[in-house]
Every structure is written in structure tokens, then in C-alpha cells.
Amino acid sequence: MIEMHDVWKTYSDGTNALRGISIKVNAGDFVYVVGPSGAGKSTFMKLMYREERPTKGQIFVNGFNLERLKQRKIPFVRRNIGVIFQDYRLLPKLTAYENIAFAMEVIEAPKKHIKKRTMEVLELVKLKEKADSLPTQLSGGEQQRVAIARAIVNNPAVIIADEPTGNLDPETSWGIMKLLEEINYRGATIVMATHNKEIVNTMRKRVIAIEQGQIARDEVRGEYGYED
């Protein structure tokens, strides 16, 4: 589902964010990406949905070579990649329903299908009764659930989650993780960057540790491995 071959990323100031990364993530995997601040995790995540481009190397996602991708094809590829951010990034003037539906409107899905699918994912994230609420009327956990619903509404093959529990209290974080586990169980491949030691050590999924721009560990049932 995701492959990187000898991927390097050097920024204009000369910083080597990633150095010779090679990984393979199979369909249906749930992978945690961990490591110290400044290790290169955010760059690693952004490369998978073409927010950043590598200086060297090749990246394949869902069968597409991202480096050879023509500009006009990028929106099509991103339909198959759901992205969840730490800060939610909901549109403030749209309701929960409208935020989710918007992700389908931009790909010109039929209106009847938009309504049906939007209500389906609202039910999945247990927010059907909050469909008409604006982001400011929702708690942080509820906003993140809307963000997750928006990320999965187009049935993407891959979910990229960058610190999705970073702004949430422990109880709410576990609710979000249970939801992501359910989405993974339904077939989506999930790659999640996190600093949450308890979640990683309890759930024991595959762990890729990045240090100084390189892969330091890649363990099938790994642990966090860093002090808080």
C-alpha cells in the first residue's frame, strides 16, 4: 500500500530531514510512527500525501508513483488518502454535516450519495445528533471525530493521522483510538504519528521509530521506547 525507496528530504536551509528512508506498509496495516521532536516524523507523514516532495528517492502510495505524478492527477490520488490533523482543521462556518459533506462535494459526488454517506459516517463516529453543530459548539474530542469522519467519508484506502490525540485528554484519546481501530478493522491502512507512550505500549501495533531522519527501529509489535 505504501512504499518508500531510499527517500531523502533536504530543505532549502540545508537541513536533512530524512536520510535514506526505505519502508513498506502492507494493505490493512496499522503503523505508529514515533521518535523525538525534530526527528523527521512530520516530513515523513507529509511525503505520503504529497504535501512535501522528496529530494531523492521514490514513494508509492496505493499503486501510484508520487514522484512521477502529474499535477492534474494529485487530487485523484488524494481521494484515496484520508488525512487527520492534531488541530482538526475544520471549516469554522460550516456545521459538522457540512464539513464532512464538503469532502464529497469537491469530488463532485451525486447529492443523494453525499447525504446518505455523510449520515453513515456521522453515525459511525457517534455524532449523528450533532450534525447541525458548528465546530465552536463541539468539544475537542467531538471536533476530532468530525475530522475523522471527513477523512473517511470517501472510503480512502489509506489514513494518515498526524498526532490525532495530541490536543485531547486521556479518556477522549482512547475513544479516538477505538474509532481508528474500528476503521482499520474495516480495511483501511493507518499510519499514525504520535508522542502518546501509553497508547503505543498498550495497543502494540507495528512501530516505526525515526531518529535524526533515519529509521532506528521497525518492530511488528513494538513499544514507544522513549521517555516522556
From TrEMBL:
Topological type in the membrane: Peripheral membrane protein
Domain called ABC transporter: residue spans: 2-227
InterPro entries in UniProt: AAA+_ATPase (IPR003593), ABC_transporter-like_ATP-bd (IPR003439), ABC_transporter-like_CS (IPR017871), ABC_transpr_LolD-like (IPR015854), Cell_div_FtsE (IPR005286), P-loop_NTPase (IPR027417)
Taxonomic superkingdom: Bacteria
Subcellular localization, as worded in the UniProt entry: Cell membrane
Signal peptide: none
UniProt GO MF annotations: ATP binding
GO biological process terms on file: cell division
Pfam families, A to Z: ABC_tran
Record key words, sorted: ATP-binding, Cell cycle, Cell division, Cell membrane, Membrane, Nucleotide-binding
SMART domains per record: AAA
Statement: the UniProt record of this protein carries the keyword Kinase: no
PANTHER family xref list: CELL DIVISION ATP-BINDING PROTEIN FTSE (PTHR24220:SF470), IMPORT ATP-BINDING PROTEIN (PTHR24220)
Role noted for this protein: Part of the ABC transporter FtsEX involved in cellular division.
NCBIfam families, per database record: FtsE
Quaternary structure annotation from Swiss-Prot or TrEMBL: Homodimer. Forms a membrane-associated complex with FtsX.
Protein family (similarity comment): Belongs to the ABC transporter superfamily.
Record's protein name: Cell division ATP-binding protein FtsE
Organism placement in taxonomy: Bacteria, Bacillati, Bacillota, Bacilli, Bacillales
